[in-house]
Design brief:
It contains eight helices and twelve strands. It is of the alpha/beta class and 232 residues long. The model has no long low-confidence stretch (mean pLDDT 84). The chain starts with a strand and ends with a strand. The chain has a five-stranded parallel sheet with strand order 2-1-3-4-5, with helices on both faces. It has a four-stranded antiparallel sheet with strand order 6-7-8-9, with helices on one face. It is 38% helix and 22% strand. The protein folds into two domains: 121 residues, Response regulator (Rossmann fold, 3-Layer(aba) Sandwich), CATH 3.40.50.2300; 102 residues, Arc Repressor Mutant, subunit A, CATH 1.10.10.10.
Length: 232
């Protein structure tokens, strides 16, 4: 079955253009013009990925994104105006999988969608021999179930990108990973070397696993090099 993309944007012409373009490339699409229509569409059918506009009248995209958490949540690519750097950073901190600035380049959009969906597939098809559990500070990562649970057994919200990062660290325990290695290991596209998305996501993960996120001991920064997973 073809992947289902839900397009949520308040501009009708843009919605229809994106739906037509993606439809011709094998995607199944649904359109929503605001947060209420998006939620109605989610109740009718669960998409694989949501293209989510940030600046919409009424409830904005960041508010919607806050409610799209958990391992079963759809992947999310944010659509932002070129100057909305703050919104992009906040969106990544809240668990978005990627972002695209408007005006959208349609070929790049299709490429990004495929890359994000591929990450989800790769994460779900890890070889059985590699599936195990890892201690991450106050939490446990279960590679087989793609779950992060706290010491009380309660599941902690985890996006697919956060899972990919934790999995990468788990498979490279005690090894310093530089920026390029992390970007290559956790993403499926070439990122700008100055892209801060990895730093943002690691900061977000630290809030979930570290006893004191401001003084991390599990995923530590190696100044001038990168990060290391050192559970002790």
């Amino acid at each position: 079955m073809s992947d289902h993309v839900l397009i949520c944007d308040d501009e009708p012409d843009l919605r229809e253009m994106l739906a037509e373009y993606l439809g011709k490339r094998g995607f199944r699409t649904t359109m929503a013009g605001n947060a209420a229509e998006l939620r109605a569409a989610l109740e009718a059918a669960r998409p694989d990925l949501i293209l989510l506009d940030i600046n919409m009248p009424g409830e904005d995209g960041l508010s919607v994104l806050r409610g799209l958490q958990g391992p079963e949540a759809p992947m999310v690519i944010m659509l932002t105006a070129a100057a909305e750097v703050v919104d992009r950073v906040v969106g990544l901190e809240m668990g978005a999988d990627d972002y695209l600035a408007k005006p959208v380049d349609l070929r790049e959009l299709a490429s990004r969608i495929k890359a994000v969906l591929r990450r989800r597939t790769v994460a779900s098809e890890a070889p059985a021999a590699e599936r195990t559990r890892f201690r991450f500070g106050r939490a446990w990562l279960d590679l087989e179930a793609a779950r992060l649970t706290g010491e009380d057994g309660e599941e902690l919200p985890l996006t697919s990108m956060e899972f990919n990062l934790l999995k990468l660290f788990a498979r490279n325990r005690g090894r310093v990973l530089n920026r390029d290695q992390i970007l290559e290991g956790a993403h499926d596209r070439s990122w700008d070397p100055y892209d801060r998305s990895i730093d943002i996501r690691i900061s977000r993960l630290r809030k979930k696993i570290e006893v004191n996120p401001s003084k991390p001991e599990v995923i530590r920064t190696v100044r001038g090099v990168g990060y290391i997973y050192d559970p002790g």
